[in-house]
Q: What sequence folds into this?
């Protein structure tokens, strides 16, 4: 057959793609602009081929199959390999004189018109989204005299608009709307905010994000929210370096519920290094003019050191945090804290029936928390901090439909008031 892989050519394929696509990855070189992890549900991060497959996907040379899978065990055709080479040529990764181009000249000639049409479609704007319905129930002494609702239903809708500016640059806009169901006669909130707007691309060997984007510091245990700034990332096979700076943006809020930014300018640097199945990380962040009601005031610094291990379905992570904020320290807050996480499962939102079970232990004094990624209510002692545990699970009910159940039992560092949160959530991705 014209597109069949002969015995002779199958050796070439194993060298280039079948054995983790490592050789092709080396030919293409560099890193790309995408930020998402695990682009293909059937190639977990622990798999030996993951770094090469992810790099090709980041470069835009590897698209996968329409069902979102990589299907690495499937026999490849010369036509499919020619598509990979053609995309690399269109991005200037390899030139016409390259031996691969010469080897697949016939297939590439036949792809000419079809490839041009494919690239034209890819230049168009892409729209994706997420609809999340969540239910929160609070209990414990920490919430008996506060002003917040002990139960809250929230319908959150997000729309992501992504487009290509040129081969190595894209933009993304995130629109968000929240509807809170409080059991009263209300027409709902009609405000739709542009919560994020950022440009993503390559600047030499670095990946760049600029604009309003989601900044994550210390895996979200210190900060996970929007900022207006610039982020540079250098991603190697085993090491990463990330520099970020700018201004802390408003929390997700709307015209009827204005909220000031909880801090002013910030700077952050984080690095990691992987050895075998263990990844070590470290970071430093400085936040100016923090304003947390009843808690952090003024400048805050945090140093972090972490270690993570992944083997099969198991993942374990630990992170140490050392925070400095004179305002809360003079009122009895400690400086050192830590977070431990344990995860078991193989959850992939595109694969029905997959799941994860997970848990965490927190011991975080006030200087180590600015805007936590957790779904629990953690500001039960904002002047001193909190400690406690979380248990949770996630299940893919259908493809791109998944449910989350989490239970938090936290206690104030000094007031010792318990704050328990039951969190349930169902998400629809499209």
A:
């Amino acid at each position: 057959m014209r597109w069949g892989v002969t015995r002779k050519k199958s050796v070439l394929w194993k060298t280039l793609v079948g054995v983790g696509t490592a050789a092709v990855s080396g030919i293409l070189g560099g890193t790309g602009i995408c930020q998402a992890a695990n682009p293909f549900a059937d190639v977990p991060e622990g798999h030996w081929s993951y770094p090469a497959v992810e790099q090709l996907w980041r470069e835009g040379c590897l698209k996968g199959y329409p069902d979102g899978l990589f299907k690495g065990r499937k026999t490849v055709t010369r036509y499919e390999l020619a598509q990979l080479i053609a995309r690399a040529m269109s991005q200037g990764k390899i030139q016409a004189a390259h031996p691969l181009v010469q080897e697949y000249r016939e297939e590439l000639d036949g792809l000419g018109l079809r490839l041009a049409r494919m690239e034209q479609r890819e230049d168009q704007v892409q729209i994706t989204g997420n609809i999340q319905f969540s239910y929160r129930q609070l209990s414990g002494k920490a919430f008996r005299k506060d002003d917040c609702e002990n139960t809250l239903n929230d319908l959150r809708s997000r729309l992501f608009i992504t487009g290509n500016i040129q081969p190595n640059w894209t933009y993304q806009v995130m629109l968000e709307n929240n509807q809170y169901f409080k059991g009263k006669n209300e027409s709902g909130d009609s405000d739709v905010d542009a919560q994020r707007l950022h440009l993503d691309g390559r600047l030499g060997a670095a990946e760049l994000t600029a604009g309003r984007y989601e900044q994550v510091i210390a895996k979200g245990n210190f900060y996970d929210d929007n900022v207006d700034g610039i982020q540079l990332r250098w991603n190697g096979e085993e090491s990463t370096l990330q520099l970020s700076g700018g201004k802390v943006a408003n929390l997700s809020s709307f015209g009827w519920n204005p909220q000031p930014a909880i801090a002013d300018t910030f700077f952050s640097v984080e690095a990691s290094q992987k050895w075998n199945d263990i990844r070590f990380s470290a970071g430093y962040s400085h936040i100016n003019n923090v304003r947390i009601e009843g808690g952090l005031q003024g400048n805050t610094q945090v140093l972090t050191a972490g270690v993570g291990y992944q083997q099969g379905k198991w993942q374990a992570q630990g992170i140490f945090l050392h925070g400095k904020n004179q305002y809360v320290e003079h009122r009895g807050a400690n400086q050192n804290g830590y977070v431990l996480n344990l995860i078991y499962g193989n959850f992939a939102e595109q694969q029905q029936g997959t799941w994860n079970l997970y848990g965490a232990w927190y011991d975080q004094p006030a200087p180590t928390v600015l805007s936590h990624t957790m779904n629990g209510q953690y500001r039960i002692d904002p002047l001193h901090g909190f400690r406690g545990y979380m248990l949770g699970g996630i299940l893919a009910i259908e493809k791109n439909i998944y449910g989350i159940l989490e239970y938090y039992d936290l206690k104030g560092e000094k007031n010792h008031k318990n704050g328990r949160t039951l969190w349930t959530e169902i998400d629809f991705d499209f």
About this structure: Residues 1-36, 253-257 have pLDDT under 50 and may be disordered. The first helix runs from residue 7 to 18. The two ends are 38 Å apart (CA to CA). The CA atoms of residues 18 and 422 lie 46 Å apart.
